[in-house]
Write a structure and sequence with these properties.
The structure is a homodimer. The first copy, chain A, is of the alpha/beta class. Chain A is built from 9 helices and 11 strands.
């Protein structure tokens, strides 16, 4: 079973205070780029893998989605998600992405935001998602970028000549990474970007778009701390089609 | 027109002394991985973009290729390539990849090794290659990895705690990079990996395999200096299909 950091009190409290938890989708600077990669949602049956507080589920319904199933490992997050909607077409359930099973050909869109880098067996997960989608269905997800995750000691480096740069090492050595983020010893799984793409291709998905997210000039003007995201990608956004 | 470093005497002399120039394909540690990504060559009409000394062209003919057209910007390299074969099914011609034109649907395989990072307009090049291939044709190429190229000062960094790491900065700022390699001020063009893939997808190629090359344990055992290639990828190998 995947590590359930979200139900640790210190992590949950920290996570609940992030802009993306307080403001929802508009609190995530990558949201406009994700939205541009989504198909029209009208009439679609959607599964959201790692749905958290349910922001995407509720938004998808405003866009005409027929139904949304939100899955998450965290009881705490689902409790809050359930408390925030009475929509009968939105359902939430506990699920571990390491052992995910979906009903066959039940969904038109699979969506996931920043959850899969916590999953060790990505090949298995991708096959499970493929089986749950109808032919022609879309699958759009975001993960931490491997450039951001690869190093055994990720974090900005000041060099002797006064530059600021990001360390990349151990890139080809895939597997567990432990970092401190909101709580101690968060377990993530580093995979090369090529590995992620090849898993999708091997499962018969067609790659539609790969975006190593960086902020627009307009976003930087409004929020200057985003400028460092030009230096190294923190996230990658991927759209594929069954 | 692309910078023609290969016809600068110091560069040409340095390049001619590299293992991959002296030993040919087997002098390039990434060659076994490239070979595994190639289709069967029997009967194929091949274009090699940036063919250099013609090692791949001659090898492809030993694998049953029907014909090989080798294109390169360098008169020096083509002169040596021509001197090393009398095969009537191998042809060489001067071409600038910035302005490449190919006869329509004339080839079954396009191949290129470590040439496209010298090309500024990759979108244009990809469309030209697409037009030169028959439906179902393969396109396999290698480029310097953007992790290797992105920084304004690429090169190993020693950190205060004794680690060795590779700097990544300016990753989202695409365009010209000038570095010293065999000669001064070699001009290369940095593109994010996502940009390269999206150019291929937009041109209607299907992505088949993306390999951020790293050496095998066996290769490292035989050539210990390859170990550092586990830390950050120097090259990416991409296979697509029209």
């Amino acid at each position: 079973m995947a590590q359930n950091i979200y139900d640790q009190p210190d992590f949950f409290e920290g996570y609940s205070g992030l802009a993306r938890s307080v403001k929802g989708l508009d609190g995530a600077p990558e949201w406009p780029a994700i939205r541009a990669m989504l198909p029209a949602l009208d009439g679609r049956r959607i599964v959201d893998l790692g749905c958290g507080f349910g922001w995407f589920a509720r938004w998808a319904r405003t866009q005409g989605a027929a139904s949304v199933l939100g899955l998450d490992l965290s009881e705490n997050m689902l409790a809050r998600a359930r408390s925030e909607t009475t929509d009968p077409a939105v359902h939430y359930a506990i699920a571990d992405l390491e052992t995910l099973e979906l009903p066959p050909a039940a969904f038109d869109l699979a969506y996931s935001s920043l959850a899969f880098h916590y999953v060790e067996d990505f090949d298995r997960l991708v096959r499970a998602i493929y089986g749950g989608l109808v032919p022609g269905a879309h699958f759009v997800f975001t993960i931490e970028h491997p450039i951001y995750m690869a190093s055994t000691r990720p974090g900005w480096l000041a060099t002797e000549d006064g530059r600021r740069t990001w360390p990349v090492d151990h890139y080809a050595i895939e597997g567990e990474r432990r970092t401190d983020w909101l709580t101690k010893r968060v377990v993530k799984y580093h995979r090369m970007l090529g590995t992620t793409l090849n898993s999708l291709i091997d499962a018969k998905f067609a790659i539609r778009h790969v975006e190593e997210w960086s902020p627009t000039a307009e976003q930087i003007a409004g929020q200057t701390e985003l400028k460092e995201e030009l230096e190294r990608p923190m996230m990658v956004l991927i759209a594929v089609r069954r």
